[in-house]
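Ticket closed. Logging final result for Glycoside hydrolase family 125 protein.
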Amino acid sequence: MTGIDPEVLARATDEVRRATGDQVIADMFQASMAQNLPAVAERLPDGTTFVLTGDIPAMWLRDSAAQLRPYLVLCAEDPALQDILIGVLHRQLEYIALDPYANAFNREPNGAGHTTDETEMSPWVWERKYEIDSLCYPVELAYRLWRITGRADVIDDRFRVAAVAILDLWTTELDHEARSQYRFQRHGEAPTDTLVRDGRGRLTRPTGMSWSAFRPSDDATEHGFNVPGNMFAAVVLGYLEAIATEVLGDAALAARAKELKAGIEDGIAQYGTVGHPTLGQVYAYEVDGTGERLLMDDANMPSLLSVPMTGFAAADDPTYLATRSLLLSPENPYYYSGTHAEGIGSPHTPPDHVWPIALAVQGLTSTSAEERQRLLELLRDTTGGTGQMHESFHTDDPTVFTREWFSWANAMFCELCLAHAGRTLR
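Final structure:
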């Protein structure tokens, strides 16, 4: 079994139905929660859990953790579900030990995936686009499982090995130009699928933040230092410090995490905030350390819109609220508005397409129950008749969409349902 206990799900569905007053939303929640995890998760003989990234036969570190968020909300009531989620974590940690620069992995060392990319591939690796958030999500998952379940088998020797690899990589990438050996080139594809300068990426100068080759969308960064990714890294370094102190009893590991966290936070404060002429201080999406900066947001998490979810700032923080105003307006070049919907899209998908993930994040970071209800109803009404969340859909015609089934988006819809019913991860 790789799903949730039916009785646990039935109770949660009743809570969603009462909170929304909407049978269709409750039915969509129940169906997604019942079907989503069994459709992607496979328990392996070694006790770990392999998770497909929706309709792609590989396991992304980011997506495999993000797809679990609504199940984490309920897993305290379901020990068998805990086993599945802990198995996902342990497989992620094993993958990180194999190659912390890789973002997606194969079920076994079969050589599937992007084998012609110019980078240090291995038969285990499906894709080696380095994204800082890919290393954040497993640490967050470990911390949440440890806190929620209290189980001793959550943190084992695999965590220590992965933690050291993460700290080593993030420290190296504080100065990508001088220290890093990472290179990535993909030929014959879109420019966003490769790095310029023979695979090194655009020139950057140290900021205190850690460099990332690609965004959570798998598109190349424009300016190297992805601010929401570094915000997430700062938060999970605090989680790492807590685990190192309270579970591993490793003062040196804890000290490394604490020092790196402080440096990244200083870098965000110095380089990642920008004065806006009408809104005051706002967060930039990317910077390069030379003065270049990018004011925008992408639908994929971690995003600037998701800052309260990743834990870097509260939903009522003034800088976050100013940034939110910018993001949910035409000043964000990827904010789209049409006859059926308005919200944040991505350069990863066609123009005028908004993402259900971003709509769910908008609700999850709102302090208004009315806005959460409105967004749930919007998500209900924009499935294009499929009853499923898509990667994106056209603001004027929800029957025009990308990816008929996208399990991460379904998971985000379910998390918003639970939050509206008073069940949250925070």
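The first strand starts at residue 41 and ends at 43. No further action required.
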